[in-house]
Design goal:
The chain is mainly alpha-helical. It has 15 helices and 7 strands. The protein has 3 domains: 138 residues, no CATH class; 126 residues, no CATH class; 81 residues, Winged helix-like DNA-binding domain superfamily/Winged helix DNA-binding domain (Arc Repressor Mutant, subunit A).
Length: 360
């Protein structure tokens, strides 16, 4: 059990870093790992997640900066602002600094304007940007970058190498980015992407899953139903909208490119909704749940110093983590763990978190 206190949080961090690398590889960042192909990537959720997990991997962080500077036109700054709320104030400060750097490197004024949205979240003090699990602080900074310093973070001046490429739009994991080529960098691309992957939904469920304004999502769904692109019927208290995934699969040619999967939804053959294809994951919820767990572990070391204390602490924070993981919709449900008494809660929690991670 004592060993679990050391190995469990580090195993979660390592898994999240692996997931981030795979997704950045698929998006075209300079990486040597295989790209994600089985789960649809949410670019804005990945950017926000990297503002936390990338602090434990400086190379990942800077390759993400490089990609943002090279592909800024593909990023929805409105969604980035909305999703950043899920990750908290420090994420917003880190985003502000990162967008300013990417803006100056790529000559992109819209990134600098977006960074200004988070001015109020500049840190009151100063802390090292890059961290080392188990030690907290990184190696120390002698000549800090002025932009990051202005936001409260100490790090050396980043060197963006310009090695990022464009996303492989033949990879079905980049469905949401591909849809932006048709619908623009708008909420419509997110709404249609969700329907292609899940088949149906009401405006509340869809808006919450893809982090767009609910009223806007409803207007999009109604317009598309009026145009004959969706089926609409009243189910319960809200209208439910369904998309014909076979029909749309013919339009999009699922799995058409190198590195592509074999379709969309739960599976796929040559269309949407069959076995083997790319699936939807609520990445903002998944990433932020594990951020919440690791932040608490790092910031409250004394509460995790013994199996009994760790179990007590996890019992308090687990409900919020489990709710977010359930919203992530990865196909694994963490059961109610309240029956586990004393220090047994730690091992039960770790076992089910590991099972959840195995689904990623």
């Amino acid at each position: 059990m004592e060993k679990l206190l050391r190995t469990f949080p580090k195993s979660v961090l390592d898994k999240m870093l692996d997931v981030c690398w795979g997704q950045w590889s698929a998006l075209g960042a300079y990486a040597t790992v295989p790209p994600e192909t089985g789960k649809a990537i949410d670019p804005e959720a990945l950017i926000c997640a990297t503002m936390f997990f990338g602090r434990y991997d400086p190379r990942l962080f800077d390759e993400a900066l490089d990609w943002i500077a090279a592909n800024a036109r593909s990023v929805s700054l409105d969604r980035l602002k909305m999703i950043a709320r899920v990750f908290g104030p420090k994420c917003k400060a880190c985003l502000g600094a990162s967008l300013e750097v990417a803006a100056s490197w790529g000559g992109i004024p819209r990134l600098a304007s977006a960074a200004a949205r988070w001015d109020e979240f500049r840190l009151a003090g100063r802390e090292e940007l890059f961290l080392s699990w188990g030690r907290g602080k990184g190696p120390g900074v002698k000549d800090p970058d002025p932009t990051f310093l202005a936001w409260g973070f100490l790090r050396k001046r980043p060197v963006l190498r310009g090695l990022s490429g464009k996303p492989d739009l033949g990879n079905d994991a980049n469905l949401f980015l591909r849809l932006r080529k048709l619908f623009g960098v708008t909420s419509r691309a997110s709404v249609v992407g969700y329907l292609l992957l899940k088949g149906e939904g009401n405006s509340t469920r869809i808006a919450k899953a893809v982090h767009v304004n609910q009223r806007n999502a409803y207007g999009i769904l109604e317009e598309m139903a009026e145009g004959g692109f969706l089926e609409r019927w009243t189910g319960g208290r809200e209208a439910v909208f369904r998309i014909d995934r076979e029909r749309w699969g013919g339009i999009f040619g699922a799995g058409r490119g190198e590195g592509a999967g074999s379709g969309f939804g739960k599976g796929a053959g040559s269309g949407f909704g069959k076995e083997g294809g790319v699936v939807f994951v609520g990445w903002a919820d998944v990433f932020s749940a594990f951020q919440l767990l690791l932040e608490d572990w790092a910031e409250n070391a004394a509460a995790y110093s013994t199996p009994y204390l760790a179990s007590s602490r996890l019992r308090d924070i687990a409900p919020g983590i489990v709710r977010r993981l359930a919203a992530g919709d990865v196909g694994y449900r963490i059961p109610d763990l309240r029956a586990h008494r004393g220090e047994d809660y730690l091992s039960a929690f770790a076992e089910h978190i590991q099972a959840y991670l195995d689904h990623l």
